[in-house]
Amino acid sequence: MVIAAFLAITFDPALRLLLTNLRNFSFRPRWLCRAANALFVGSIRPEDRHPISSRLIRLYEPLAAWSLRQKWLVISLAILLVLVTIPAFMNLGSEFMPPLDEESLFFMPTTMPGISITEAQRLLQTTDGIIKGFPEVERVLGKAGRAETSTDPAPLSMLETVISLKPKSEWRKVDTWYSSWAPEWLKAIVRPITPDHISREELVSQLNDALRIPGLSNAWTMPIKARIDMLTTGVRTPVGIKISGSDLKVIEQIGSRVEKNLLSVQGTRSVFAERTSGGYFIDVKWKREELARHGLSIEEAQTAVLNAIGGANVTTTVEGRERYPVNVRYKPDFRTDFGSLGRLLVSALGGKRQVPLSQLAELEAVSEPAMIRDEDGLLTGYVYIDIAERDPGSYIADASEALKDSVHLPVGYALTWTGQYEAMERVKERLTVVVPLTLFLIFLLLYMNTQSFAKTMIVALAVPFSAIGAVWFLYVLGFNMSIAVWVGLIALLGIDAETGVFMLLYLDLAYERAKKEGRLRNIPELRQAILEGAVKRLRPKFMTVATMSLGLIPIMWSTGTGADVMKRIAAPMIGGIFTSFILELMVYPAIYEIWKWHFEVKKSGSSPK
Questions:
Q1: pLDDT by residue (tens digit) across 111-138?
Q2: Cβ contact 483:427 at 8 Å
Q3: What is the CATH number assigned to the segment(s) 291-368?
Q4: Is 48-91+452-604 a CATH 3.40.50.2300 domain?
């Protein structure tokens, strides 16, 4: 923008002077001379004889004259439109960022802790088979447990399935308003706006209904988004709750109550509270007297149990460039029940004696935390919430009200919303600074340009006028307020200021010309001067709005990854430009007449006739 502004005042005038020819060429052959004159010389026509401007003037002049005659009615209607827009704005949802379509899905169901490897494998194969049966699915890759890396501490109770989808042209078709009559070329134009195949939300809903398996709590997201959410907030669902306190059992009880109450909140597709004490372990309680009688230390006894049950790496086998550890431990038949474990032999007296484990310790099955989370110095449990057909902002507001009345926290415990909520709160804090600062800079630049507070306020009226179209266009499209939408709104402020300055500039020029010629003796003459400035200079205002619209409207037909974000940036600008332009043409002349008549013309002693 800085470079464009610099070129507009340097390169553009020089180029115009170089390429503009005032005299016709004269050479032979004649046909080539006529073509050269048509291309390189042309003619500059007045506004009323220009083929486009003349039609626009004939259309706009009676409307502008009517708005000046009914100026108070026009201003009242503009104010009423602004007031009617407020409820629509309040009904817009809120989210951090629009969902970036990754053309794939991520299915992350959760089971109760303590699931066996065999059962996890069976569940994974079952869910993968159901998902692969959908015609929109190309490939399915499921995983249970964690990879051999410390950066993926996923338990067996957390399944992960990456679903690669086919191109949307191969998805199942649905009937739309144009399916029965539109030719294929027209369908290709309308399809990006009103798709004739099932939506991604509908596909997820059908998959979720098909995967309602007892013991599974489903969660749906996308692969990259899920990883980013887990890295930034710790939860793998779009919205979650962190329960902090000092006792894991109390945290689990609070999580169970939260889970029960959130099921009744509209928009909850699934909710699962971590069972923080749901891990199953074998507790070996050593009999220290027996260990001392056999000359064994605690370390020696525990090493024997570790090697027998967990195994020990004794060597490494080399297979080409690959290395594999060789692990030795008891066969499963000798370590799968308490009787077998009690018969495990522990070497004593340097291997001269073998003592059964049952003589040295008591074996007991206990339920303890499978995973301990610690955040900000407090023990923490998570509640995973998957929402559908609602925006995160309104869902969190309703859910908070439901939990406030039904879940009472003991002293020292706290509930904290996480997931998109954290990002939304950070954005809200920044926007409370960025938006007022942007408005202040626009006001400052306008005042420096006009040197008049009244003119600055008149130009600033474009902001509520543009908000009318921006809000209603977002409302019709079903878009939520997000970072992308706010970027579009902030850009719209600058465009509004530009179009407002154009209108005010030509009104001032016409007013000053009439003042010099002595044609401001009464309201009809003032009105005629205003009509001249508003109507006769319509073309540059129209071209400004048309150029921006032609550059933005094609974005609404864009498809593919990133299109959702671009549409939400362009949508408020498209809607706001149209309403701002229309209302500026109708309201600005009326306000300008009131201002000039009551504060300048009338004070000079002119007649109201």
A1: 887 788 888 889 999 999 999 999 999 9
A2: yes
A3: 3.30.2090.10
A4: no
